[in-house]
Amino acid sequence: MDKDILKKGFSKLCTAKAMTELYEENFKQVSKYVHATSRGHEAIQVALGMQLLPQDYAFPYYRDDAMLLSFGLEPYDLMLQLLAKKEDPFSGGRTYYSHPSLKDDDKPKIPHQSSATGMQAIPATGVAMGMQYLEKQGLTNSNVIQSPDNYRDEESQQKPITVCSLGDASVTEGEIAEAFQMAALKQMPILYLVQDNGWDISANEAETRAQNAYEYAQGFHGLEAISIDGANFAESYEALEKVIATIRKERRPFLVHAKVPLLNHHTSGVRMEWYRDDLDEARSRDPYPVLRQQLLDSGCSESDVNAIEKEAKDNVASDFEKALQAEDPKPEDLFTHDFVPTPITEEKGTRAPEGAEKVVMVDCALFAVEELMREHKECLLYGQDVGGRLGGVFREAATLAQKFGDDRVFNTPIQEAFIVGSTVGMSAVGLKPIVEVQFADYIWPGLNQLFTEVSRSCYLSNGKWPVSMILRVPIGAYGSGGPYHSSSVESVVTNIRGIKIAYPSNGADLKGLMKAAYHDPNPVVILEHKGLYWSKVPGTKTATSIEPSEDYVLPFGKAWVLQEIWKQENVETLTIVTYGMGVHWAYNASGELDMRDQIEIIDLRTLFPLDEDTIMTSVKKTGKCLVVTEEPSNNSFARALAGKIQEECFKYLDAPVMTIGSENMPAIPLNSTLEETMIPSTDKVKVKIEQLLKY
User: Fold this and answer.
1) Spatial contact of 179 and 418, defined as CB atoms under 8 Å apart
2) What is the pLDDT of residues 243-265, one digit of tens each?
């Protein structure tokens, strides 16, 4: 091998090794926060890191500090994270050691990823899918693909790739299968590097895996795999050089299975001597003496090798002393970068244009997406059955594939985790994905990605990687959908911080909120009640709307007082706070009771951000409040909101804040009589209103 490559590789390996040794020598100082190191894995990590370019995207995992050094980061950078310091370049002291997120011009791009093992495979594959989309559409992105005229050298003209680094134990995760399936199916430019040290934590490969990652990859046709000695730097570098060159040219996925020893603890909190019985064998495969000898064999003198080692140790020691003195975060630093400010803060455009037709709610959403896709090539739509054959099970994507092509509107496999999590990667390359979970009941496999990857990316990357996406979720009971097509899930979703949530009650709101969501740089979930799509449910004709103009936007966090009243002396008054289908139950109930001058109705429109000012102002005026939801009310968003209202408005209340929701049963039954018994209705809301007004 080229001597300069060997020297650079040895320097990075020595630096990583010296860091591990320093951490062990100063264990009491550095073990306040849990960390893991690359000791034993350095050769394969450095061999990869040295070959990636600034236009590439990388998803290192928590043991990859040697890889990060080979990207050009200094020990000091990593130590700031080790010690959770304010100037930690990745997260500002928010997340663990070697959990990087980076957006430097001269280094590979590293979006945020969680510590949940294997979860990064889906966002990483989303990046590769985004790269592929940009290439097919002829689009440019400042981080990924630029005009060749802007390149200064041959190296930077090479097409970008995505690298996802994984431990062998994580390959048993189901979400790994979803990532491999899509990469193989769509032939994406991604390299999965699996570092196989034979251990989970205390469970070894014989206990937990039916096959290794190389063998597993054989089941995914189109995913080529090789197995190498990851402890040998020269072998690793040359093998990766060929694989990377192939991906850059042929734009297809590879898996490299690298056998490595684990020479340090699983983490600082789980010591190897507690459970390991193979330490002598592992030490016999140490990559350090192998690379040292390769460097000597290349003609490098013993004194030069010793000088490289000394320089690495001295730099590590110096950086550690400096990192110890670095500033810790202040309490106020907790409250930054949960969201990126949105440009949509006011209602704009024409809500009800003269001469426009009245349309059903599902068409308002369809037209909104069509307008967005027509104007923005970076906008695309995917999910189950949204492609050309069907256009969505509710026809909410009808004609879109025909108008914009199968590369922009396409079906995915039944992979809710991939649908949700891939948006992290798509957003990271400058795209705006609109994705769909077919029914709210099917969201559960996607919650891991929504919680660990989507919602936390902005906060844990210290604002570098907000996820700009829209997740559409048809929700609610309609037409005897039964236990698997009728659920309400807003209480679960509203407990995920870092996302915005809309739940409109009519078509105009849905279109305006969809447009606002598109221009919002943060992740948005839009809950769309199936029973309102066509207004076929009796009493929901008001969900139809004159279609708003194309430039109409409705900001999040602005509730609608759709039925406003004045405070009247000696007349009982009431505020109903609700959303979605509940708006129609409340409106119809107040009309049938002939109490529209006594009942103020607030349509929340968005569940987060929540327009607390409008709610509290109304309740303080009326003195009584009923919160209406379709969910079972126990432990629900509605019950929590009722508690908040009680807390804020206690001295203004003439009665306890009440809630009404579905019966607290495990599921909505199929039989129509049982369904009707289960969920609220106009009549049930009327009874609750009368009960509350008697206080």
Assistant:
1) yes
2) 999 999 999 999 999 999 999 99
pLDDT digits (tens, 9 = 90+) for 431-454: 999 999 999 999 999 999 999 999
The count of other CB atoms within 10 Å of the CB of residue 249 is 11
Report, in angstroms and rounded to the nearest whole number, the Rg of the chain calculated over CA atoms: 28
From the candidates 485, 519, 529, 584, give the one annotated as an active-site residue: 485
Q: Do 600 and 575 form a contact (C-beta atoms < 8 A)?
A: yes
Per-residue pLDDT tens for 70-91? 999 999 999 999 999 999 999 9
Structure token digits, residue 356:
């426009």
Q: For CA atoms 420, 426, 430, 433, give the dihedral sign.
A: negative
Instruction: Give the chain's length.
Output: 695
Q: Work out the mean pLDDT of the chain and round it to a whole number.
A: 95
Contact 552, 595 (CB under 8 A): no
Q: Region 578-585: what's the mean pLDDT?
A: 98
How much is the pLDDT for 695? 87
Backbone angles phi, psi at 425, to 5 degrees: -70, -40
pTM of this structure: 0.95
> Does the active-site annotation cover 485?
yes
Element holding 7 (H helix, E strand): helix 3-25
Enumerate the H helices of 26-74 as residue ranges.
27-30, 42-49, 65-71
pLDDT at 515 over 80: yes
Beta strands 560-563 and 599-603: pairing type?
antiparallel
The CA-atom distances, in angstroms, between 24 and each of 18, 82, 93 are: 10, 13, 21
Query: Which pLDDT belongs to residue 593?
Result: 97
Average of pLDDT values for 340-365?
Answer: 95
pLDDT band for 17, please (50, 70, 90 cuts): very high
What value, to the nearest 5°, has the Cα angle with vertex 58 and ends 153 and 39? 115
Please tell me the distance from the alpha carbon of residue 129 to that of residue 125, in angstroms, as a whole number.
6
For residue 207, the tally of other CB atoms under 10 A from its CB is 9
DSSP sequence for 83-111: TT-TT-TTTSS-S-TT---B--TTS-BB-
Assess whether pLDDT exceeds 70 at residue 638: yes
For the beta carbon of residue 221, count every other beta carbon within 10 angstroms. Answer: 8
**Buried/exposed 270-291: b ≥16 CB within 10 Å, e otherwise:** eebeeebeeeeebeebbbbebb
Q: What is the pLDDT of residue 148?
A: 46
Helix%, strand%, coil% for the chain, nearest 5: 45, 15, 40
Based on the number of CB atoms within 10 Å of its own CB, is 483 exposed (0-12), middle (13-18) or buried (19 or more)? middle
Residue 149, burial from CB neighbour count under 10 angstroms (0-12, 13-18, 19+): exposed
| Average pLDDT estimate for 298-308 | 96
Query: Is the predicted pLDDT of residue 338 greater than 60, yes or no?
Result: yes
Listed residue (251, 72, 47) closest to 161, CA to CA: 251
The token duo for 517 is: 């969501």
For residue 525, give the amino acid letter.
V
Residue 199 DSSP label: B
Helix (DSSP H) and strand (DSSP E) numbers for the chain: 25, 19
Arithmetic mean of pLDDT, 363-382: 96
